[in-house]
Design goal:
Fumarylacetoacetate hydrolase, domain 2; 5-stranded mixed sheet; 34% strand
Length: 288
């Protein structure tokens, strides 16, 4: 199934919707006691998901997707964990070493935003802002000390993430959270797709288009550490709670490494996508 947090004309706040084809079905219209957010749906477990699925299967009507707006695919995750240097080409182009253990950092909740949102930042803070297409993993069942073989059983589903990064700040500080956590620097969505619809997370086409030019084009099969390996590794040190979002790293093709370099400019449009999951567009504004 596909879900999204959408805004509709009669709902000023985002509501959870089932996405079927080109139509959004608001979950609270299907079930009076249904979940209002994706996190509530995930915490409700398989039984609640089955109730929503059954209600959607017999539903008609709905709202055309052309008439809705989108909030972040995940609104209030327990934590957003990001993995750096998980593709050899990306590590090499940044002249950084992919160490024996994953590079892990957190993204701040203020950075979350949705599809077709406008992300704005001051020119005084950075003029070296880069794009990074990433596969987002959403945890379903709490994971603690899980094995690689069992790790995917704890994955509820997947989304698309653009891990926007101020490169000059990244290379001037010892940690990476701030350079990637400006307001609106973590667009997600438009959709959260259940794991059964995605299949093998290591067999997905991932790409980026900036101002009409394709700049990243790869496969998740090129990850240094698979989704299962990352979930197992992260679960050794802390329990991964339901709703946790893990951003799994970006392939090669970052703007920083290009000659000439490509950074997101005022009025740039960047779309990142993972085939079978969705295409996520962000509009950029730089203010003086």
């Amino acid at each position: 199934m596909r879900f999204a947090h959408v805004t509709v004309p009669d709902q000023p706040r985002p509501v959870l919707a089932v996405v079927q084809g080109e139509t959004a079905l608001v979950v609270r219209d299907l079930l009076a006691d249904g979940p209002a957010t994706l996190h509530e749906l995930i915490v409700g477990g398989d039984a609640l998901l089955d109730r929503v699925r059954d209600a959607a299967a017999g539903a008609g009507g709905g709202i055309p997707l052309s008439q809705v707006g989108y909030a972040s695919a995940v609104l209030a995750p327990p934590v957003v964990l990001a993995v750096g240097l998980n593709y050899a080409a990306h590590a090499s182009e940044l002249s950084l070493k992919a160490d024996t253990a994953p590079t892990v950092f957190t993204l701040w909740p203020n950075s979350l935003t949705g599809h077709e949102a406008t992300t704005t930042w001051p020119r005084s803070l950075s003029e070296s802002v880069d794009y990074e297409a990433e596969l987002g993993v959403i945890i379903g069942r709490a994971a603690k000390d899980v094995t690689v073989d069992d790790a995917l059983d704890h994955v509820w589903g997947y989304t698309v993430v653009n891990d926007i990064t101020a490169r000059d700040i990244q290379f001037s500080e010892a940690q990476w959270s701030r350079c990637k956590s400006f307001d609106g620097f973590t667009p997600t969505g438009p959709f959260a797709v259940t794991a059964d619809e995605v299949g093998d997370p290591q067999d997905l086409h991932i790409w980026t288009v900036v101002d009409g030019h394709r700049v990243q084009d790869a496969s998740t099969g090129q990850m240094i550490r698979s989704v299962a390996t990352l979930v197992a590794h992260l679960s050794q040190s802390a329990t991964l709670l339901p709703g946790t979002l893990i951003s799994t790293g970006s392939p090669g093709g970052a703007g920083y490494s290009r000659d000439p370099q490509i950074f997101l400019r005022d009025r740039s449009t960047v779309t990142v996508g993972v085939d079978g999951i969705g295409e996520l567009t962000t509009h950029c504004r730089i203010v003086d």
